[in-house]
Design brief:
- It is built from 21 helices and eleven strands.
- By secondary structure, the chain is of the alpha+beta class.
- It folds into three domains: 218 residues, no CATH class; 137 residues, no CATH class; 68 residues, Arc Repressor Mutant, subunit A.
- A hairpin with a 5-residue loop joins strand 10 and strand 11.
- Helix 2 packs across helix 14, helix 9 packs across helix 12 and helix 16 crosses helix 17.
- The N and C termini lie far apart (70 Å).
């Protein structure tokens, strides 16, 4: 009984306005624009404003809702929002990321000599590749899927023949079914040299020995010198194990454009943050529907009361949406200002070493907002600075104490760890225990398991696999 009561209390705790605001907080600029366009289409009470307003608190001249009363009646100025400020600029800066991996392959497919049937199958294969460029599915299940979803009866041989065509596309190595095939595709595409020919033999016949770095077995079986083996290994390590990653290594296909939610400029030693003018329209409540409500309220007919109920629901929805957009704007602005204040040294210098350890709780305390609210604001938002464009998530990291008792960012420790591994003797790479000693000498007291965790997060292999000839 108590559990049910608590559940009902929590359900009743969030108002429609709060629910709307929470949803809008998570949206980046482009998605917010799409959401507003959708609301304009589905709610006839909402419309774009053609009036210019110098202050968002000005009462729009063409709205008269003074007679409209509800349980949570709201001043008419709250039924209007100006998203663009005084200096309206319809354009905004967009930052296009590189052509997506799958788009690139689709474009190359257009230049192939495949017939219509084969091209359709090729498109299905391309769509089945993962973001790294690999085909992780066996040909039998792939051909079954093609028959089921495309209605094309095919065979494993035909699918493989078309796959081999795709494997000729750029980047070289795309369409491989495993790492060995990926590297072989790449080494075969290069102009032959003694080192590359040896590398091809190693990849083809001694791949397991190579991955386990059993170099003595390879030199013994192939009867080559250590120097010859080193030349072949150098060729292999310069190949790309993730051919799909070089097309679009940072963003998914669904995020082909980034519109910065904030722009930060440094002027005369001061940081100035603005929220760019974007193509989101000013919104207002349509006066005609307010009049319908007023007229219907005076009607005693069933149809009139139904019309009044419908219009009131739409008016409430419009009112909550307009207010939620205003609250979103204010929340984003206050949160970003708090982040800038916290990370001022970084924003002035652009030096990653100046990033302070910062967690969501730090900004929540500065803004008097919930941690969950800060998390929603940070999600999918970007800031444009003189040093580049950054995701807001970039500025958050854990922290720990150094030997001097100062709090340092885990990002700083990872940077030192990477530098230490980069400067090690590759013939005798540092073990995690030895890295603990190195970091301690540099003033960072960390446990071995912490070093191992950070090393894995940096995609750095264990010492045995970093060994070179």
């Amino acid at each position: 009984m108590l559990k049910q009561g608590l559940h009902q209390k929590l359900q009743q705790g969030l108002s429609p306005l709060q629910i709307q605001t929470i949803k809008l907080l998570e949206l980046p600029t482009l998605e917010l624009e799409q959401e507003i366009r959708r609301k304009l289409e589905e709610n006839p009470v909402l419309e774009e404003s053609t009036d210019s307003a110098d202050d968002v608190d000005d009462v729009p001249k063409n709205i008269s809702l003074s007679e409209y009363q509800s349980d949570d009646s709201t001043p008419s100025y709250k039924l209007y929002v100006n998203n663009q400020g005084k200096d309206i600029k319809p354009q905004y800066n967009t930052f296009s990321v590189k052509e997506s991996f799958h788009q690139s392959l689709e474009n190359q497919l257009g230049y192939s000599n495949l017939d219509g049937r084969s091209r359709t199958i090729a498109q299905f294969i391309i769509g089945s590749l993962d973001d790294d460029g690999y085909l992780r599915r066996d040909l039998e299940s792939l051909s079954d899927d093609i028959a089921f979803r495309l209605g094309i009866e095919t065979s494993e041989d035909e699918v493989e023949r078309i796959l081999l065509v795709i494997q000729e596309f750029e980047p070289v190595g795309v369409g491989a079914r495993d790492l060995q095939e990926c590297l072989l595709l790449q080494i075969r595409s290069l102009d032959p040299t003694p080192s590359r020919e040896l590398a091809q033999i190693i990849l083809q016949d001694y791949f397991q020995e190579f991955t386990k770095k059993h170099y003595q077995k390879i030199t013994s079986k192939l009867e080559v010198t250590e120097e010859q083996l080193k030349g072949a290994v150098d060729e292999i390590v310069h190949l790309n194990p993730r051919p799909g990653g070089q097309i679009d290594d940072s963003y998914t296909e669904q995020a082909q454009q980034i519109v910065p939610d904030f722009i930060l400029e440094e002027k005369d030693g001061e940081l100035q943050m603005t929220m760019p003018k974007f193509n989101i329209p000013e919104l207002k409540v349509n006066k005609r529907y307010a009049d319908v409500l007023l007229n219907a309220a005076n009607s005693s007919t069933r149809e009139g009361k139904e019309a009044a109920t419908f219009v009131k629901q739409k008016l409430d929805s419009a009112k909550w949406f307009v207010e939620a957009i205003k609250q979103r704007h204010n929340t984003l602005r206050n949160t970003m200002n708090a982040i800038i204040d916290f990370q001022r040294e970084f924003f002035m210098s652009g030096d990653e070493a100046n990033l302070k350890p910062m967690v969501l709780k730090d900004i929540a305390e500065k803004t008097n907002l919930d941690i969950s609210t800060i998390s929603r604001v940070v999600s999918s938002k970007y800031i444009q600075t003189q040093f580049g464009i950054f995701s807001l998530k970039y500025f958050f990291s854990e922290g720990m104490m150094n030997s001097s008792g100062e709090e340092v960012s885990t990002r700083e420790i990872k940077k030192v760890l990477m530098e230490s591994i980069g400067n090690e003797d590759k013939r005798k790479p540092l073990t995690d225990e030895e890295l603990v000693v190195v970091l301690t000498e540099k003033g960072y007291k960390v446990a071995r398991r912490t070093v191992a965790k950070y090393r894995e997060q940096l995609n750095l292999p264990i010492a045995r696999l970093r060994k070179e000839l």
